[in-house]
């Protein structure tokens, strides 16, 4: 396997992996393992790339970071520095945004079952908009807004009947999803009617959809934009509804392994804009603001996890298991989705592979495997393994399974490192436990 560099990754004079100008082995000395390392320059580059494409094509836009990919105070501060908006899906993510002083008007709240407490928190903080997901929420939100004598901007989440993953996109006629209102079965129209009828509480600013994840082609986005724009033409006439905003969600793919061939993020945006502008022009509608919500494509490739290698078990004629000091507790994706990753030895990323090994985690589960077939130079206990592209849905999905403390997070940029999430301690693990 050729060593594929992400962002500022390099091999320094000592032959070690370097990220953000910092030697990975030095990071391990300072912060220990397992360790999540984020290449800040790459996150900035991605954020600027999305924004620039909209600016160059003259479209009013919001690029909202889908923060479920990696939620922490520091990443919210970084996204704010880059002028992004923020998508949150829970009271916890909103609380983190509040702690990060994220501008409230640029926070969008998602979710298919927001609680009363979460809705009240969002209203009290004065967030930018609520993405309304179902009829129950319309009723509940209206009741709470009425009680608080408040009014809120809302987007209606629709399911356009397209589901996209990597190279596949599926037309789902029956809109079988727990999220949103069916676009073609009349649900979305009914939701819009109800919201427009409650204009004391709601300012309906537009529509939202999210068609899937790890998408490598633009077809699904174009189809979704087309279908929604068709409906907007209809509702302009029948409901006098003009959508100020069209939010097409996230899902832009990243490179986990050599098999993944994502497009440049700007490519997705260009094609979406082209379709929306064309449909608007052909139907004499004004071009709506276009919002997107990338998560993985902003932070995925920027993240690397550093582990220490420990035990080795040989199963003659089958495979060699090489175990690291983390696993499904810091990266559930291989166990959950059969996700694939690539990795190198941080001390010698350019060395030729001499064997193929299986990288096992340390959790008490046979399924706790990080990589099944990794070509690697001969490794020893104590060597540092760097697993690439772990920046999205790694830390945010981490758990304390087996009472393993969650690893710390370090940002690296311009030769400097900064601890942004501390390593959990054993004391943290028992702090909510009570005695009999
Ligand atoms: C509504 C919504 N927006 C955005 C995203 C971000 O997707 P990704 O991280 O693939 O860009 C998700 C992911 O699940 C989502 O559900």
UniProtKB/TrEMBL annotation:
It comes from the Bacteria. Coiled coil: none annotated. Pyridoxal 5'-phosphate binds at residues 251, 293-296, 393. SUPFAM superfamilies: Alanine racemase C-terminal domain-like, PLP-binding barrel. Pathway: Amino-acid biosynthesis; L-lysine biosynthesis via DAP pathway; L-lysine from DL-2,6-diaminopimelate: step 1/1. Residues 42-299 form the Orn/DAP/Arg decarboxylase 2 N-terminal domain. CDD domains: PLPDE_III_DapDC. Specifically catalyzes the decarboxylation of meso-diaminopimelate (meso-DAP) to L-lysine. Homodimer. This is Diaminopimelate decarboxylase.
């Amino acid at each position: 396997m050729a060593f594929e560099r992400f962002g500022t990754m390099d091999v320094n004079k000592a032959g070690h992996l370097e990220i953000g100008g910092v030697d990975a082995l030095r990071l391990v000395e300072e912060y220990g393992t397992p360790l999540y390392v984020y290449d800040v320059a790459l996150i900035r580059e991605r954020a600027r790339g999305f924004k620039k494409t909209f600016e160059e094509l003259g479209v009013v836009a919001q690029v909202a970071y889908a923060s479920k990919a990696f939620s922490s105070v520091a990443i919210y501060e970084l996204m704010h520095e880059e002028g992004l908006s923020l998508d949150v899906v829970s009271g916890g993510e909103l609380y983190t945004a509040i702690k990060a002083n994220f501008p409230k008007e640029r926070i969008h709240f998602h979710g298919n079952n927001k609680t009363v407490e979460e809705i009240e928190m969002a209203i009290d903080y004065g967030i930018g908009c609520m993405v309304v997901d179902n009829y129950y929420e319309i009723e509940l939100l209206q009741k709470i807004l009425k009680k608080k004598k408040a009014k809120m901007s809302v987007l209606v989440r629709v399911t356009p009947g397209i589901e996209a993953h990597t190279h596949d996109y599926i037309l789902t006629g029956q809109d079988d999803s727990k999220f949103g209102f069916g676009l073609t079965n009349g649900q979305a129209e009914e939701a819009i009617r109800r919201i427009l009828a409650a204009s004391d509480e709601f300012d309906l600013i537009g529509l939202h959809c999210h068609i899937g994840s790890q998408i490598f082609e633009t077809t699904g986005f174009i189809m979704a934009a087309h279908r929604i724009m068709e409906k907007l033409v209809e509702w302009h006439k029948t409901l006098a509804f003009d959508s100020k905003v069209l939010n097409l969600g996230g899902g832009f793919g990243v490179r986990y392994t050599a098999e993944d061939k994502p497009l440049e993020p700007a490519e997705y945006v260009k094609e979406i804009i082209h379709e929306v502008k064309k449909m608007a022009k052909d139907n004499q509608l004004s071009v709506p603001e276009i919002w997107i919500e990338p998560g993985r494509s902003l932070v995925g490739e920027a993240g690397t996890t550093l582990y220490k290698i420990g035990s080795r078990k040989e199963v003659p004629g089958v495979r060699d298991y090489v175990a690291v000091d983390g696993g499904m507790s810091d990266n559930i994706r291989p166990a959950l989705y059969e996700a694939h990753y690539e990795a190198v030895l941080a001390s010698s990323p350019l060395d030729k592979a001499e064997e193929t090994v299986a990288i096992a985690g340390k959790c008490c589960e046979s399924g706790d495997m990080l990589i099944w077939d990794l070509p690697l130079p001969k490794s020893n206990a104590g060597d540092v393994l760097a697993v690439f592209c772990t920046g999205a849905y790694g830390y945010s999905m981490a758990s304390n399974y087996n009472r393993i403390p969650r690893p710390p997070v370090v940002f690296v940029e311009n030769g400097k490192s900064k601890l942004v999430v501390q390593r959990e301690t054993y004391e943290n693990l028992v702090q909510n436990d009570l005695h009999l």
